[in-house]
Amino acid sequence: MDKAIVKNPQNIYALLNRGADKSMLKDYRGAIDDYTKVIEIDSMNTLAFFNRGLIKQRKEDYHSAIEDFNRAIKTKGLENFWMDRPTNYFSKRGEFDVPMEDIRLERGYARYNSDSLRVAMEDFHFCIERNYQLGLSYYMAGLVYMNFNMIEDGCKALMQAKIFGNLDAEEMIDEYCKK
User: What CATH number is attached to the domain comprising 164?
Assistant: First the structure.
């Protein structure tokens, strides 16, 4: 990929792939630099913002991660679909798209870790409403409820998380919900 980038420094595909490789090798600074270059070339590249946010989250830079997730959401715009007939929807998403549920779940996690619990809950409920990664979404919602000392709601959410296969929920249930 380095050769492709030397040959064409504007090669978004090579930069994205090299950023992913650097991330896997835990060269987070290098990966962030590659994703930043992609954003400089294509300021509407949802994938670059999302991936850069994920790396910042791994580095526990939650506030910067949230900013990138917010920017990823903005690149998607308000409309994700257009309709040519009342029953036929076609996606307008491009090749660098990331599903909104992925972005909102990761942003919720970053918000949770930055003690922005109320807005984190919005992201987890968004995912729950869309039946997205229900084990994790319910688990994180349960943790937020527990942080607000809403034990009954927390236990209900944790029970749902357990139903959907979240093993961490079982420990929380044993500790906080069984009387």
Answer: 1.25.40
The residue segments making up the domain with residue 170 are 99-179
Question: Do residues 108 and 160 both lie within one domain?
Answer: yes
H or E element at residue 79: none
- pLDDT tens over the chain, length 179 residues: 788 888 888 999 999 999 999 999 999 999 999 999 999 999 999 999 999 999 999 999 999 999 999 999 999 875 444 333 343 333 445 789 999 999 999 999 999 999 999 999 999 999 999 999 999 999 999 999 999 999 999 999 999 999 999 999 999 999 999 76
Q: What is the pTM of this model?
A: 0.88
Q: Which of 74, 91, 118 is the last residue of a domain?
A: 74
Q: What is the rounded CA–CA span in Å between residue 152 and residue 176?
A: 10
Report the distance separating Cα 123 and Cα 145, nearest Å: 14
